[in-house]
Amino acid sequence: MGAGSRGVLGVVGTAADGVEKLRTGLVEPAVALGWQVAVTLTPTAGRWLRADGELDRLESLTGLPVRDTPRLPSEPRPHPVADCHVVAPASADYVAKLATGIADNQALTQVGEAIGTIGVPVVLFPGVNAAHARHPAWSGHIAALRAAGVRLVYGPHVWPLLEPREGPADRELPWQAVLAELPGGAPA
Ligand SMILES: Cc1cc2nc3c(=O)[nH]c(=O)nc-3n(C[C@H](O)[C@H](O)[C@H](O)COP(=O)(O)O)c2cc1C
C-alpha cells in the first residue's frame, strides 16, 4: 500500500479490553480517511491478536508488518516514520510506563520518542476502569501526558469509568472520538 494522502499514522494497541476491535474500530476507518497505517502492539496485545487471527488481517489490510518486538540493530526499519501516533486502547500499565518515560517494548519506545519530538501529535485513549483511576499515581500520569501535549480521549463524556467487571466484556470503545482527535479529524 502506498503512502496515504494524510500521511503515516502509527497505531498502537495494548492489552486492554476492546483491542480485538482495533482493525474495524480504528485501522479500517483511518485507512478510509486517507492515512497509511502502521500497527504496533505491546507484546501481550501481540499474543492476543495473533491468537485470534487479527494480526494477519491487520497486515493484509495495512500492507505492513505488525510490530510487537523491536528490530535487530542490523535489520531495516519495518515501518515508515509516522506523522502522528494514536494509542487505543492504552492499558493502565501502558499509561503509567509512558508517563514516566519507560520504553521497554516497541510500542512504548516509538510513542515515548514521539512525545519528545516536535510537531508529531500523539493521541491516546486510556482504556481503564474506576479502580485503575483511583490508584494514587494515576492523576499524576494523566497530568504528565497532558502537559506533554498528548491529546487525551478521556473523561466522562467519552468513557465513563466503570468499576472492575461492571461493564460488558464487549463494551464498545469510543473509536469515533479517537478518530476525531487525529489531525484533520473525522466525519461525525
Ligand atoms: C482479559 C483481560 C482484559 C484486560 N483488560 C484490561 C483493560 O481494559 N484495561 C487495563 O488497563 N488492563 C487490562 N488488563 C490487564 C492488562 O492486560 C495487563 O496490565 C497487561 O500487563 C498490560 O500489558 P501492556 O500494557 O504491555 O499491553 C486485562 C487483562 C486481561 C487478561
From TrEMBL:
InterPro entries: Flavin_trans-like (IPR036551), Flavoprotein (IPR003382). The lineage of its organism: Bacteria, Bacillati, Actinomycetota, Actinomycetes, Kitasatosporales. This is Flavoprotein. SUPFAM superfamilies: Homo-oligomeric flavin-containing Cys decarboxylases, HFCD. It holds the Pfam family Flavoprotein. Residues 14-133 form the Flavoprotein domain. It comes from the Bacteria.
